[in-house]
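Our platform keeps sequence and structure together, in a single record for each protein. Such a record has a labelled line for the sequence and another for the backbone structure tokens. The tokens are whole numbers drawn from a learned vocabulary of local backbone shapes. The remainder of this section carries one protein's record, kept here as part of the documentation:
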Amino acid sequence: MRQNTKFRLVISFLFVVGMVILAYYLIFDKWLLLKTFIDPNSEEYKIEEIADNNKVQYRLSYTGVGDLKQTIALNTGIAFFKMNHLGASNFRVELRTNTDSLFTVLADQVGEYSGIVEVNIPTNDAYLLYVKTKDHWAVAYK
């Protein structure tokens, strides 16, 4: 009978520890278990952390083949653009003002490309996102 009590005590203790960890995760939204698998020194992790802390931009992504001209809304502050290109053709991504004047070139590469660009957006406004290529691409921003 004494052994059965010790077993129940150990199981109860493990259950309580599990509930405390779950409560911590739910209350503080800390990806407690997943953070150990992510390298906190990686560039992608830092960008995610900065964007989440500032919460200044909408999060949207576009994928396609060939050219795109898309109106997007950006808020004042920092925006991060993550771009991927698969193929051998030219890949150019431009951010333009709502009057169609060039604000900045986000990417201008030939061939396969993957990169992240940080842009300081001066005013809340509509902007134009141009993608010029013949191949598969993806652009995400936040």
Q: What stands out?
A: Residues 43-141 form a domain with the Jelly Rolls fold (CATH 2.60.120.380).
